[in-house]
């Protein structure tokens, strides 16, 4: 009985040490994440990336750290790297429209317009009641000189969003299309 009590006592004494180690690691990742955010606020993107990488080793902070790393690369105009990080996040969470929108933007900014159009079309379909999703898609269509498809999307959007402010935005883009197509 004394032997069992001794083993139980040792086990109970050692258990908090292991638990403390895990808590310490999580706390350290949390600190890395906060330090990274502070560097990001100071526009020191390289340092922020370094600390986001350290925080990402803890799965609790992994997705947020990776998203913020992509943001930092974007702010450094390294859109290829940002798109690579966001592609993985978008694959892991295809229903997350914030990640998809960011991924589409990174693709467009890195010159991958065709892929960006696919993402923005997907977003416009997922969020048919969101005028910003429709505007983003239409603007990218105009940028890609896909004028007929842009006109078609504008006509649908004007029917879907009848308020004056939204209608004005779509009509402004329509005028831009007319100017670009008649000046040729």
Structure characterization notes:
It is a single chain. By secondary structure, this protein is mainly α. Helix content is 84%, strand content 0%. Helix 3 (59-75) runs antiparallel to helix 4 (79-92), helix 5 (97-109) runs antiparallel to helix 6 (113-126) and helix 8 packs antiparallel against helix 9 (164-182). The chain is elongated, with a radius of gyration of 25 Å.
Spell out the blueprint of helices and strands.
Elements: H1 2-41, H2 45-55, H3 59-75, H4 79-92, H5 97-109, H6 113-126, H7 131-143, H8 147-160, H9 164-182
Helix pairs in contact: 1-2, 1-3, 2-3, 3-4, 4-5, 5-6, 6-7, 7-8, 7-9, 8-9
Overall pLDDT, averaged? 87
Radius of gyration: 25 Å
The topology string of helices and strands comes to HHHHHHHHH
Count helical runs: 9
Sketch the major β-sheet: none
- Alpha-beta classification: mainly alpha
Oligomer: single chain
Report the strand count.
Answer: 0
Strand content: under 5%
Low-confidence stretches: 3-22
First-residue to last-residue Cα separation: 96 Å
Helical coverage, percent range: over 70%
Shape: elongated
């Amino acid at each position: 009985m004394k032997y069992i009590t001794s083993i139980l006592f040792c086990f109970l004494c050692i258990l908090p040490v292991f638990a403390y180690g895990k808590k310490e690691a999580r706390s350290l990742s949390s600190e890395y994440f906060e330090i990274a955010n502070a560097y990001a606020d100071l526009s020191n993107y390289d340092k922020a990336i370094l600390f986001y990488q350290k925080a990402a080793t803890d799965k609790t902070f992994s997705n947020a750290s990776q998203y913020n790393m992509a943001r930092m690369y974007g702010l450094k105009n390294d859109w290829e790297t940002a798109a690579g990080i966001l592609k993985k996040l978008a694959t892991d969470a295809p229903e997350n429209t914030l990640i998809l929108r960011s991924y589409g933007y990174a693709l467009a900014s890195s010159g991958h317009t065709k892929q960006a159009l696919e993402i923005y079309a997907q977003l416009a379909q997922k969020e048919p009641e969101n005028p910003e999703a429709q505007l983003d898609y239409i603007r990218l269509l105009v940028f890609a000189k896909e004028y007929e498809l842009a006109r078609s999307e504008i006509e649908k959007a004007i029917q879907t969003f009848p308020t004056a402010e939204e209608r004005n935005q779509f009509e402004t883009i329509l005028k831009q299309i007319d100017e670009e197509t008649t000046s040729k």
